[in-house]
């Protein structure tokens, strides 16, 4: 009689499988931890980058009407309108990167006191690169103004030149404040001026041959001896900016004078 042999029992799971599962869980935990750290770092850098530069007291003090200038805080811009005898040429101002519109309020007050309506554009996250067409709604809201010019500080100036290139004929004047063109405007009929401080880290480029080639042949170039970058406005904390050797009031007087001279050319008074 043949005795049946027992069939082999099913093979038991090998021991390494659970170890592989534990290894994958550890790898996943490490990856998630690295991603979390990277996300926190990105948020911290992003928060720092969009944090606006501190304003000087003069900036916020200029957000008010005076006997010469009527001030208004509009949804998309700050407006400074001469109280009497306003000229028919208006000026749009594009702020520099990370600078709130109020950082140019004293400058706008001074230009408006000379008879020219001034409108400082509000930019998303205070970055003109995110609002390059901010001038259009300002123009559309003021049909009483016959001719327009645009000014911009630093990144705001570069974006102002982009606006002019994309809207030929919309503006008749340009003032670059410590900036340089980001587009070829040499063929446009513009009354243009470019002004910067001699101590600005980018001074060589602002008055250099590339900038001159992209601007009209009769552009006025002005270097302010002893001026720097942040004194083109009324804020502080500009990174890597050498200290100016002249006062902010002196530098601002030069900026206002050069801009008003450009506006006089636009409206035919000069």
| CATH topology value of the largest domain | Rossmann fold
Number of domains: 2
Shape: globular
Tell me the CATH superfamily of the largest domain: Alpha/Beta hydrolase fold, catalytic domain
Arithmetic mean pLDDT: 90
The SSE string, one letter per element, is HHEEEHEHEHEEHHEH
- Return the CATH architecture of the largest domain: 3-Layer(aba) Sandwich
Uncertain stretches: 40-48
CATH level 1 name of the largest domain? Alpha Beta
Strand content: 15-25%
Radius of gyration: 29 Å
Oligomer: single chain
Measured between the Cα atoms of the first and last residue, the distance is: 128 Å
Strands side by side in the biggest sheet: 1-2-4-3-5-6-7-8
Query: Helix amount, in percent?
Result: 25-40%
How many E strands? 8
